Amino acid sequence: MTRGLEGVRLREAEPADWEAIAALQVASWRFAYRGILTDAYLDDELEAERTALWRRRFAGSVDPNQITVLAEGADSRPGAEPLAFCCILAGSDPRWGSLVDNLHVHPDALRLRLGRRVFREAARLLVGGAHEATPLHLTVLEENERAKAAYERWQGRLVEHPTKRQPDGRVYQLRRYAWDGPAALIARLDGLG
């Protein structure tokens, strides 16, 4: 793992990155959700499910409203696991706007502030496009303290507490955080120094 920010580059994901993205999401979920989601799901089902999801998302022509940004070591070889990624589904919800569907940092890179960097870059790619005035939102499991702290630090507004059945089959309490739009989010993140 790269240990400093100087060796990190950001780029848009390409179709060939789907396996590396799936592997990072699996590592992230196993770290963040151990003790929250069931062990049976995390150990036996997660990898196949995430692999199928990312293969499907990058198969054929990629949805132009899917923006996926990777953070990787400057010396990363093609297909190497990224350090972090953010995937936004632009304009996907008529009420809440663009969904920040995934924001994951490899467990070994959590202290590098890469989540904030990939989130900012994905939002920047919305500026000037059809969804630049569209709000952004995400949901997080109530028990995910690390993620909730980040979204609150990034000045996301807590707008509701929905419940949702998760892939392990159980229903969980969530928090939905929202931002007014990409430019407002970028300004908030830049204001953090």
UniProtKB/TrEMBL annotation:
Residues 8-177 form the N-acetyltransferase domain. One of its GO terms (molecular function) is acyltransferase activity, transferring groups other than amino-acyl groups. The keyword Ribosomal protein applies. Keywords: Ribonucleoprotein, Ribosomal protein. The keyword Transcription regulation does not apply. It comes from the Bacteria. Pfam families: Acetyltransf_1. InterPro entries: Acyl_CoA_acyltransferase, GNAT_dom. PROSITE patterns: GNAT. One of its GO terms (cellular component) is ribosome. This is Ribosomal protein S18 acetylase RimI-like enzyme. It comes from Enterovirga rhinocerotis.
